[in-house]
Structures are given as C-alpha cells and as structure tokens.
Amino acid sequence: QAVVDFERLGKYAAAFQGHDVGFCCLGTTRAKAGADGFVRVDRDYVAEAAELARAGGCKHFVLQSSRGANAQSRFLYLRVKGEVENLVQAVGFDCCTILRPAVLLCKRQESRPMEWIAQQFLGAVAWVFPTANSVPVETVARAMVACVLQPGEEKVKVLENRAIHELGKA
C-alpha cells in the first residue's frame, strides 16, 4: 500500500509500476469537496491515476463509475462520471471494465442524513427487487475481482447494476 498526495500524483509514478491490474473506486461528494473539488477528485485524479497505471504496465483497468454516467448529462455528477469513463477508455488499456452501480448500500463513518434515508428505503426495496436500484458495496467489490478473474473478449466492458449483482454472486 502506498500513500500518495493526489495533488502531486506524478511524483508517485513508481507506486503504479509493475501491476497487471488496476482497481479504481476513488470519489468524493460535491457537498464535501465543492463542485470544483468534486471534478478534480472524480475526474482528474482518476484519469491521472489511469495514465500512470498504464505507463507502469497495467493491462486491465477496472473503474467504479455510476449508473447513468453520461458525458453529455446536464447533471454535474453524471457528466463527470461519463467524462472520466471516456478519459479512462482513451488511455489504451488492453482491457477496461467499467462498473456502473446504482445506489451503494454501505455503512459510512460520516453523517449523510439524506443518503441514510435513501439507503433505508432502497434496502427495503432490495428485498423485493434486489437488482433494481441499489447494490451492497461488497457485491461491487466481488464483481470487480470476478471481472478480472473471468475476462471476456471485449476491450471495453460496461457492467450495469444487474450485471454487477450477477457477477458479484459468482
């Protein structure tokens, strides 16, 4: 494990060398970082990490994005997620897997009251429709590992929420 300063990520290029696979789940919230900070973390840091990983020999990059990611979206969150997907794909990995989970079900240390309410509701809905609007973070993690252990033929593979559930159970 290497601790890096994302504002000077290029200085840590050695930490990205010699790995066949890269996993990226980096992200923040607009509320926590502001609009500019959100863009810097969720797009710029991720894109730079992908470039460093590729330069270091990474062949398969796995990116956690978001359901609805679209570089043309009017919503900042979805637009930034779509932009970073495009940037990561453009890096030129032999294989790039993008996971687009719906609402992540997890326990957080910081207080996010609205997210907590949404998680309670979606957690209940998940009992009836398990793949519709949410996914436990553990399922996403298992799906990320599974997509590397069971690679397909596609150069770029995008997994939506239902596929994440299926792969995460395998």
UniProtKB/TrEMBL annotation:
Q: Which domain of life is it from?
A: Eukaryota
Name the Gene Ontology molecular function terms of this record: catalytic activity
Signal peptide per UniProt: none
Extract the coiled-coil ranges from the record. none
Choose any GO biological process term that the UniProt entry carries and state it. import into nucleus
The record describes its quaternary structure and partners as: Monomer. Forms homodimers during oxidative stress. Interacts (via N-terminus) with elongation factor EEF1A1 (via middle-region); the interaction is direct and competes with EEF1A1 binding to guanyl-nucleotide exchange factor EEF1B2, thereby inhibiting GDP for GTP exchange and reactivation of EEF1A1. Interacts with nuclear transport receptors XPO4, IPO5/RANBP5, IPO7, IPO9 and KPNB1 as well as GCN1L1/GCN1 and LRPPRC probably through their HEAT repeats. Binds NCOA5/CIA.
Q: Which PANTHER family match?
A: OXIDOREDUCTASE HTATIP2 (PTHR14097)
Write down the Gene3D superfamilies for this protein, in alphabetical order.
Answer: NAD(P)-binding Rossmann-like Domain
What this protein is called in its record is Protein HTATIP2
Q: Name one Pfam family in it.
A: NAD_binding_10
One GO term describing the cellular component: cytoplasm
**Domain (NAD(P)-binding): residue spans on this chain:** 4-151
Give the matching InterPro entries: NAD(P)-bd_dom, NAD(P)-bd_dom_sf
